[in-house]
Amino acid sequence: MRLAVVTGANRGLGLETSRVLVRRGWRVLLAARREEEGRRAAATLAGGPGEALSWPLDVGDPASVDAFAARARRESLRIDALVENAGVYLSRADASAFRESLAVNAVGPVRLADGLAPLLARGAQIVMVSSGMGQLSGLPAELRREVEAVRDREGLLALAAELGRRAGSGGAYLAYSASKAVLGAATRFLAAELAPRGIHVNAVCPGWVRTDMGGASAPRSVEEGARGIVWAATMPPDGPTGGLFRDGRPIPW
Ligand code: NDP
């Protein structure tokens, strides 16, 4: 049975993505920050043909990410798809909002990808759930230059730290956009690094979706939003890597 790890899987797009994969016969490890919520979500997916289980994971906490990856290595998981879906859109507009957005939406996903990399099967897919709000064209010019200059982990961590010091600059929208743009930079360097192992890394924008984050007036259902994520997670091994996609079609970084 193919194995997918899905983060932030207890509700919203993560839970729907997990549901579709279980329906297609995958074993899905739901990673959820609140253990009980994760277990409850996994129980709703019982009935096959695949199966669901849950482990705790707080993507914003390096110790939690390391413990999750260590457990996965101890249990010798062989992972076919890693869906990095957990994310936050904070309504605060202070420096701590930048710090938390960067930690959960960009730095944590890279740490998790690194921790699980030895367990990824040849032809595995990593899907970074991103947003059109993280497209480079929407960023202020200086921030765009800074994001485009990120080529590796060192650059990513340096920019994340720098953004975390810029108190109140731009508010909630910009903290989110910046974090997803930085996630894009990570997608590109991880794709280049993992290409020799036949592992693909792509980012997906699900569109504006009616979840707790997207709100009730969003035009897309959670089923429609999850479709592009599932598409990327189940892509054949000769598919693209290092791109940003919406509805299975490339869109500009
Ligand atoms: P929801 O707010 O409905 O769900 C977010 C999920 O992420 C929850 O399971 C939440 O867990 C989890 N999460 C948040 N922080 C952490 C953390 N530190 N560690 C582990 N899990 C965490 O959002 P959506 O389902 O809408 O969003 C999923 C992804 O899609 C996000 O990355 C988001 O940025 C992206 N996206 C969503 C859009 C939309 O319109 N909805 C548009 C574009 C992108 P908990 O229940 O514990 O809070």
Layout of helices and strands, plus pairs?
Elements: E1 3-7, H1 12-23, E2 27-32, H2 35-44, E3 51-56, H3 62-74, E4 79-84, H4 95-116, E5 120-129, H5 141-148, H6 153-163, H7 171-194, E6 200-204, H8 222-233, E7 244-246, E8 249-251
Parallel strand pairs: 1-2, 1-4, 2-3, 4-5, 5-6, 6-7
Antiparallel strand pairs: 7-8
Helix pairs in contact: 1-8, 3-4, 4-6, 4-7, 5-7, 6-7
The structure holds NADPH dihydro-nicotinamide-adenine-dinucleotide phosphate.
Entry summary:
This protein has eight helices and eight strands; from the N terminus they run E-H-E-H-E-H-E-H-E-H-H-H-E-H-E-E.
Characterise this structure.
The protein has 253 residues and is α/β, with parallel strands linked by helices. Helices cover 44% and strands 17% of the residues. It has one domain (3-88, 109-132, 180-250): NAD(P)-binding Rossmann-like Domain (Rossmann fold), CATH 3.40.50. The protein has helices at 12-23, 35-44, 62-74, 95-116, 141-148, 153-163, 171-194, 222-233; strands spanning 3-7, 27-32, 51-56, 79-84, 120-129, 200-204, 244-246, 249-251. The protein is globular, with a radius of gyration of 17 Å. The protein starts with a strand and ends with a strand. The model has no long low-confidence stretch (mean pLDDT 96).
List keywords for this structure.
253 residues, alpha/beta, Rossmann fold, 44% helix, 17% strand, binds NADPH dihydro-nicotinamide-adenine-dinucleotide phosphate
